[in-house]
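Handoff note, outgoing to incoming analyst
You'll be picking up this chain. Sequence as last confirmed:
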Amino acid sequence: MGVTTAIGIGGDPIIGTTTREAVELLMNDPETKGIIMIGEIGGGMEAEAANWLKDNMRKPVVGFIAGQTAPAGRRMGHAGAIVGGSDDTAAAKMKIMRACGIHVVDSPADIGKTMAEVLN
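Most recent structure output, in case you need it:
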């Protein structure tokens, strides 16, 4: 296994590429065999990408959401990592991602192992 493309989006209010757009590019790239989508608490970009994947997934996707132990309503590093509503929590995002067919892991330590399993 190896990384062919890595895209860092960040959580700033104004971004050039959304998570959904990045996932769509990778899903349509013939060289990409699987996608790892890492998100964080706050915002709705992961849910938007997951809902797009629900109808367009042709390759395995493994997901992880950082901030599972973050206190509700507290800023965690930057403006994009603040939970604004019930759908912005790590648990809510992970539930949405699982419902859309993404292989969600609870720990970043399980990302590689899970990708290897779903690729085989």
